[in-house]
Amino acid sequence: MWARDSVFKKFWEYVKRNLFFVGVALFAITVCSIVFGVLYLHFFRGVNIPKIAVVNHDTASYWGQLGDFAGGFLNPLLSFLALMAVLKTMALQRTEMRAAQQEAKTATQEQRQQTAVYSRQMFESTLFGMLDVHAKILRDIKYTGPLSKPREGREAIDMIVKSFKETNAYKGGIAYPDLVTDESIQSEIDAFCQEWVSATGHYFRNLYWIMKMIDTNQDVPMEDRGVESLLSNQKRFYTDYLRKRRYTNIVRAQLSESEMALIQISCLGPYGADLKYYAEIYSLLKPLGRGYFGGWKRYMSRSFSDVAFLGLERIDMGTLMKVKSELVSRNASTIRRNMVT
Fold first, then answer.
1. Which of 169, 168, 147, 165 is nearest to 157 (CA)?
2. DSSP conformational letter for 319
3. What's the DSSP call for residue 152?
4. Above 60 in pLDDT, residue 340?
5. Are 256 and 154 in contact (CB under 8 A)?
6. Tens digit of pLDDT for each residue in 294-336?
């Protein structure tokens, strides 16, 4: 009993899924049954059916009339039903193809999402590994002054920055700020960077590569399709910038005040132009502020974009695009200069 009910249930489900084809088949069977029933009643039982007349049943034309009647009526009907079935089959195939395409599209999107998650995890793992290396580099920095004991790590950075602020030129800038020229300040910065490049060069190179790795990491693809997609690309750029800034904020949180001051000095030196871009666009000097260098603050701050000292809430898209275009122009100028030399 249970097996019979199960078979009937499956049969009914099949009928509901293929209702069109079942209906066509039943209609064709019904029409054929009616036609052959009429022929049987008329030719074999002698039932008089209007407009059907056959003479001389014993001749071959009798069977020809029988075939002509059945074929002339059923062939167009069955051909039409077959055509309808073919069209219905094609429609079902199109529906199945659309469903298959949608499933493939969904699978592709899921694959892309999984790839993006995996890439992000790999990027973050690499980033935090580089931050660990950076912390070790910081601990290895040493300072040996003429009147102080040797210092290491952040204490060494503190002493290096202190030595910069204790120079006669710097103190003179505090006492007589109007007598200080931009050329003299830049000369002092260049000399200071040359003096400490062996002790701090590794620190700044690693910090530069950390910032560059963050800046060049792409989570949202940027496309160039002309003027009509410019606004869309700007939105993508800003969304991507916010994502990258979250990582650079982590980097900035590791920096002490003396480290930020040393970064500002180094960015104005002969080796800091590339790091200066990242310090500007990702506001690495925001906690330091513009007034850290006292009498030299005007020159030290003027050489940086405003973005270097601003919080995210005060940065607009136009300012970011301007800083970005300045980097492109500077890189192009560097390439042309290298080609000439």
1. 165
2. H
3. E
4. no
5. yes
6. 878 888 888 888 888 988 888 877 777 777 777 666 655 554 5
Is pTM beyond 0.70? Reply is: no
Closest among 328, 325, 278 to 304, alpha carbons compared: 278
| Chain-centre distance for alpha carbon 58 | 86
- Reading the block at residue 99, the tokens are 């469903």
- Those residues whose C-beta lies under 8 Å from the C-beta of residue 15, and which sit 6 or more positions away, are 22
Cα torsion 327, 331, 336, 341 to 10°: value is 130
- Burial call 32-61: b when 16+ CB within 10 Å, e when fewer: eeeeeebbeebbeeeeeeeeeeeeeeeeee
| Residue pLDDT, tens place only, 11-38 | 667 666 667 666 767 777 777 777 667 6
Element (H, E) at 235: helix 230-253
Q: What is the DSSP letter of 228?
A: G
What letter represents residue 213's amino acid? Answer: M
CA 154 from chain centre, in angstroms, equals 38
Residue with tokens 């002698």: 46
